[in-house]
Amino acid sequence: MTEMMSKTDLEAALRQIGEERYHSNHPFQIMLQEGRLSKQQVQAWALNRYYYQSMIPVKDAHILARLDTVELRREWRERIIDHDGTETERGGIVKWIALADGVGLDREYVMSGKGILPGTRFAVDAYVHFVRDRTLLEAIASSLTELFSPNVIGVRTRGMLEHYDFITRETLAYFDKRPVQAKRDSDFALSYCLEQATRPELQEAVMNALKFKCQVLWAQLDALMHAYVEPGHLPFDAWQPGTHARNGDATDRAA
Ligand SMILES: O=C(O)c1cc(C(=O)O)c2c(n1)C(=O)C(=O)c1cc(C(=O)O)[nH]c1-2
């Protein structure tokens, strides 16, 4: 039988999970931030991550539908607004399309989702299904990776600007607001989980949901690594480096 932890200990256990398992430790992330990827490998990252971005509001809509107070829904709907935007403000999805465009990919192709890796699709869909099918507490806990994203976003953005001549601040504008939004969202999710995990098995479920989500992020980078870095084994239908680039941007073409 696991023992009931204090809130302080549960929070420390969650932070420890992030310390060890968050995608900030993945070799692809480290190559990306250290400038060790080719332009085409950065394009592969941007293309695949678009699918994650595009499904975030869908998974948040599953959570929203299960929240039963005005206050909770009001809090959670901000996440959907952040990604979908408003009539006057660009949302995260549009900004990610601008990022993919900024690294030289054809927008229509990126948005079609046709060239994404099966590993990307399976990981992202598993996240959406987890949130839909598990308890509300587990669904909310699975967003707790955002406790760790401000740090990795800072390191990634600085590294990319420093090392890649094809990356500009404007291209990475998606990340400008994310750290503040992620802090607001993860502070809320953390206090919700600490408050609601009132039995040892619920605390365990919260930790497992965070571990699951770390795997969702990790598996996406594993898929990129395998297809576009080592051994460079492309699955059927995956984006071929050198194709679907914007006009006049066919540099670094695959043979
Ligand atoms: O750049 C990153 O490393 C990173 C990580 C994460 C995350 O930890 O899940 C998210 C984001 N970015 C992000 O931009 C984002 O909108 C987001 C939403 C969520 C979520 O689970 O609800 N995670 C993340």
Automatic annotation (TrEMBL):
Family annotation (Pfam families): TENA_THI-4
Domain of life of the native organism: Bacteria
Record-linked Gene3D superfamilies: Heme oxygenase-like
Domain Thiaminase-2/PQQC positions: 12-222
UniProt catalytic activity: 6-(2-amino-2-carboxyethyl)-7,8-dioxo-1,2,3,4,7,8-hexahydroquinoline-2,4-dicarboxylate + 3 O2 = pyrroloquinoline quinone + 2 H2O2 + 2 H2O + H(+)
Entries under InterPro entries matching the protein: Haem_Oase-like_multi-hlx (IPR016084), PqqC (IPR011845), PqqC-like (IPR039068), Thiaminase-2/PQQC (IPR004305)
GO molecular function term, any single one: pyrroloquinoline-quinone synthase activity
Pathway: Cofactor biosynthesis; pyrroloquinoline quinone biosynthesis
Keyword Glycoprotein (UniProt): no
EC supergroup of this enzyme: oxidoreductase
EC number: 1.3.3.11
PANTHER family: 4-AMINOBENZOATE SYNTHASE, PQQC-LIKE PROTEIN
Function of the protein: Ring cyclization and eight-electron oxidation of 3a-(2-amino-2-carboxyethyl)-4,5-dioxo-4,5,6,7,8,9-hexahydroquinoline-7,9-dicarboxylic-acid to PQQ.
Name listed for the protein in its UniProt record: Pyrroloquinoline-quinone synthase
